[in-house]
Write a structure and sequence with these properties.
Elements lengths: L2 H21 L7 H4 L4 E6 L2 E3 L7 E7 L6 E5 L2 E6 L1 E2 L4 E5 L3 E2 L8 E2 L3 E9 L2 E2 L3 E6 L4
Parallel strand pairs: 2-12
Antiparallel strand pairs: 1-3, 3-7, 4-5, 4-10, 6-7, 8-9, 10-11, 10-12
């Protein structure tokens, strides 16, 4: 057997080993797939005016929320350490008005558009639900 052919067999064996090892590993799942994590049933309101002159408190209703330590992510911005009420079925949070500063850049105002709301607990992460920021008039 020549060295080239031996190298092909060793490579094929290594690839097969990696594939078999990965096949037995569970893939990460969202809370709804696992059945134990948070599930968002509704958000109220589902839209509101953009701009600092218009504070918006949103109520997220669903299941699987923790008594405390919930994280709501709004358009990629985490709102941390939120408590749930009504037996872990309701979370209230204020919609962020700006994206946080990154380094020397100043914070950026959140423009009108559609943003996702996601709830994360120790048990997992919910599927996203849409929230729409509309143009505010001052």
């Amino acid at each position: 057997m020549n060295l080239h052919r031996l190298g092909q067999r060793v490579s094929a064996a290594l690839i097969a080993s990696v594939v078999l090892a990965c096949a037995g590993s569970p893939s990460p799942k969202s809370g709804t797939e696992m059945g134990t994590g948070p599930v968002i049933a509704s958000v109220f309101p589902s839209s509101g005016r953009a701009g600092e002159a218009y504070p918006i408190q949103v109520t997220v209703e669903g299941t699987g929320f923790e008594e405390e330590g919930n994280i709501v992510t709004f358009g990629g911005i985490p709102v941390e350490d939120l408590e749930a009420s009504d037996g872990g079925t309701r979370i209230r949070f204020w919609v962020p008005k700006e994206f946080p500063s990154k380094g020397e850049a100043p914070p950026q105002i959140i423009e009108p558009g559609e943003y996702s709301i996601i709830v994360t607990t120790k048990a997992g992460t919910s599927e996203p639900v849409a929230f729409t920021l509309t143009r505010g008039t001052e």
